[in-house]
Amino acid sequence: MRTHFFNVGHGEAIIIETCSNRNHRWILRDFGRSRFAKHTYYSMSIPRLLSRNCCCCYPLHFLMHPHCPPAQSQSIDAVLSHAHEDHFNGFKALYDQGRRDLFENAYIPMFCMKDLNTLGGVLIKYSIFLYRYYGPSTLIGTNAKNWLLAAPVLAGLSKKLWCVNAEHHVAGWGHPNKILWPPLQDDISQRLSERLNQYLEKNSLPEDYLNDESQNIRKQLDEFYSMQGKENEGRKYENDQIVQAISIIENVINIELDKNQKERLSNPIGLNNFAFKPTIDNHSLIFEIGGKKEQDLYLSDADDKTVVEMLHNNSISDKKYRIIKSGHHGNRGARALYNENITADEVINCCGPAHSKWNGPDISYQSVSGNLTCTDWKDGSNKWQNKSQFTINQSCCVRR
């Protein structure tokens, strides 16, 4: 197994190469860059990654030249951990460029969309509120729109879309591999949706506001997120289905709130923080992958409490990984791993200089590994006080 952690500054774009039964499989795990990412000599924007002037890695060459597919013994899959901009906007760029069926499979976290009171349904309503309030030019508005478009966009980019949760085994990734989060049981989703509805009643618009429009989007997304059999089997979608879903979503969210409605949305920042931080982050897709002798752990953006629950649910403790991809660009997960005596040969932090409030990764990851690597940091920056404790990569990608 080989990995390529591309230097996109503050964001994530990772290629995992596996080989099973003489068949090569490439996995593109997240593909995004934050709008707050600062330019450095080595970091690359999404357009540059999709141009000829970037790292010569074969899977990215395939993305740039879709009419030159790999040999039949090779295929490429996509994984979206969650739909925040710095993980998703590269996939959206591919779709907007007209790319279709690039991936053999695409994997996204399972959401329950049965009605507007489930977690998926409540988030649809919140996303409509937030996009209409903040608009397309803001990060909050973009993330709200991304959440609604994630499933149909990934369905359009792949031959099969899979909605997965804990204990799902991906047959084509070799053995062992395991989806660790979100949980198989829907208890956590139920608790989160109840808390979100309570917040909505106390701090925002009435619960029934936008129900008809939200229901319209829910019906579209339920087709993508609905339970697909016991093993959540992958599903092939027709292009017309995908285009219709995206069109309806965009038509609904692009209607502006009037002045009175905006005034009734009493705490939009709180609404965003409660819906997307931590809810979307804590529903991120987490997995481990590798061979019998070496395995890698890919944390997503879940907070420490959620990582603790993930480790407990999967009975993971006293274990050493080859690589751990740190949580939330290095800000989360270290203490949870340390408390369960989980270590790694190396911790990779997919980070770089970002907005002014970001202070760099958590030095507590030293308790997990003595080898801490960051994909990027701005030369000469003195804001990150613990910079000397990390290996700063100086190339277009970290290859392991």
Going across the biggest sheet, name each strand in turn.
Answer: 6-5-4-3-2-1-14
Structural class by sheet pairing and helices: alpha/beta
Q: What's the alpha carbon Rg, rounded to whole Å?
A: 20 Å
Which sheet architecture does the biggest sheet show? Answer: 7 strands, mixed
How many structural domains are formed by the residues?
Answer: 1
Mean pLDDT: 86
Low-confidence stretches: none
Q: Could you spell the SSE succession in H and E letters?
A: EEEHHEHEHHEEHHHHHEEHEHEEEE
Give the overall silhouette.
globular
Binned strand content: 15-25%
Report the span from N to C terminus.
Answer: 9 Å
Count the helices. How many? 12
Beta strands, count: 14
Helix content: 25-40%
Short recap of the structure:
With 400 residues, this protein is an alpha/beta fold.
What is the strand and helix layout of this fold?
Layout (H helix, E strand, L loop, with lengths): L1 E5 L4 E10 L2 E11 L12 H4 L8 H7 L9 E6 L5 H12 L6 E7 L9 H16 L4 H19 E7 L12 E5 L5 H17 L7 H15 L13 H15 L5 H6 L3 H15 L3 E5 L4 E4 L5 H10 L6 E6 L8 H6 L3 E7 L22 E3 L16 E2 L4 E3 L1
Explained architecture:
- The structure is a single chain.
- The chain is globular.
- It has one domain (about 1-285).
- A seven-stranded mixed sheet has the order 6-5-4-3-2-1-14.
- It contains twelve helices and 14 strands.
- With about 400 residues, the chain is α/β, with parallel strands linked by helices.
- α3 crosses α5 (about 140-155), α4 packs across α5 and α4 packs across α10.
- It has helices at about 45-50, 60-65, 85-95, 120-135, 140-155, 185-205, 210-225, 240-255, 260-265, 270-280, 305-315, 335-340, and strands at about 1-5, 10-20, 25-35, 75-80, 105-110, 160-165, 175-180, 285-290, 295-300, 320-325, 345-350, 370-375, 390, 395-400.
- It is about 35% helix and about 20% strand.
